[in-house]
Design a protein that fits this description.
single chain; alpha+beta; Rieske Iron-sulfur Protein; Naphthalene 1,2-dioxygenase Alpha Subunit, Chain A, domain 1; 2 domains; 4-stranded antiparallel beta sheet; 17 strands
Length: 361
């Protein structure tokens, strides 16, 4: 499977990244990140070219990272700047690749494609992670043993919350009252895909009950996918028929970073706009979110991955429902972007790249 390299991927939360090196595998490539003395973060290949030791086991000093195995040192551009052995000669193949890094919206983002195409404006903006004056919440991380597109499918089609999440972040049909119904709307513009739900005349979910005092109302659930794999969900519960901005707000981020074809880094955040000083509410909310992810979503998605056994999604001829519009559009758009990327990197003399293009068509 090919990945979209010309995309920003979250590799961690800023608050969790100190001075030491942090290793992460992204798009099948080992990386290491470390802070320079001016506070900016560098990202380079994470394997020392000498004996292939992980640089994340090294130390950072004076804006360089020293390999913990034999002491070779690399700067934030991937250049080997010191060889402490022999005459100290630095071989041409001692240098590593470096990658653009941006800190934005409380997260650390890495661009894996051509550096000239890296535009930070494409990174989604949200303030609820770092703005503790107006929001209370927390961040987290999960490792999912499944392809990242299965997680995108799961997040864009929130009808599953009624069934698998009835006791955490959804409302079971046995709790629906009177004229409860679900309205759905789909739209897309370029690399942004919208999958919007409204639960009309619904009781609150167990998660919303932690801070909302409404016994019923409309729950607006708009999801935004920023391709390749970053999703922002802004849940609002308001009085029936009222605008969503008048209700209780519970935004969340779901930032997926493909590790390999079959494993995904899942960085998540959740916040609320009420009862900001109540740490016990925050703890209970995180417990419910983790229960929904770890005990409900992850086992189902990992079972699906095992059943699919690396078979191509559309080759399995899936049944398509009306509420699958966003997920299907996302898969097709992502496949097109990846094909275009492969086309642009292939040349008539590049047989290997051309073969990849033909295989992906």
């Amino acid at each position: 499977m090919n990945f979209l390299h010309n995309s920003w991927y979250c590799v961690g939360w800023s608050l969790n990244h100190g001075d030491g090196p942090v290793g992460i595998k992204l798009l099948n490539r080992e990386l290491v990140l470390f802070r320079r003395s001016d506070g900016t973060i560098a990202c380079i290949d994470g394997i020392c070219p000498h004996r292939f030791a992980p640089l994340s086991r090294g130390e950072v000093c004076n804006d360089v990272i020293q390999c913990g195995y034999h002491g070779l040192e690399f700067d934030g551009e991937g250049r080997c700047v010191r060889n402490p052995h022999g005459s100290g000669t630095i071989a041409p193949n001692a240098h590593l690749n470096s990658y653009p890094v941006v800190e934005k919206s409380g997260a650390i983002w890495v661009w894996m494609g051509g550096k000239g195409a890296a535009d930070p404006a494409e990174i989604p903006e949200f303030d609820f992670v770092h703005d503790r004056k107006n929001w209370a919440g927390a961040t987290g991380y999960l490792k999912i043993d499944a392809n990242y597109q299965l997680l995108i499918d799961n997040l864009l089609d929130l009808t599953h919350a009624t069934y698998i999440h009835a006791n955490t972040v959804g409302v079971g049909t046995d709790k629906w009252e009177g004229e409860t119904r679900i309205d759905y709307d789909f739209s897309a513009s370029g690399k942004v895909i919208n999958s919007d739900y409204i639960w009309r005349n619904s009781p609150p979910t167990p998660l919303l009950r932690e801070f909302s005092e409404r016994s019923a109302g409309d729950i607006h659930v708009p999801m935004r996918l920023y391709l390749a794999s970053s999703l922002i969900l802004n849940i609002a519960m308001c009085d029936r028929g009222a605008p969503p901005e008048t209700g209780d707000q519970m935004p969340s981020a779901h930032l997926l970073a493909p590790e390999t074809e079959n494993t995904t880094h899942y960085f998540y955040a959740i916040a609320r706009d009420d009862k900001l000083d109540d740490a016990e509410i925050t703890a209970r909310m995180i417990k419910l979110v983790e229960q929904a992810f770890v005990d409900e979503d992850a086992p189902m998605i990992e079972d699906i991955a095992e059943i699919m056994d690396n078979r191509e999604f559309f080759a399995m001829r899936p049944l398509i429902l009306e509420t699958d519009k966003a997920a299907i559009h996302a898969r097709r758009t992502l496949a097109k972007l990846i094909r275009n990327e492969l086309d642009n990197t292939a040349s008539p003399t590049d047989g290997a790249a051309q073969k990849k293009v033909e295989e992906s068509a």
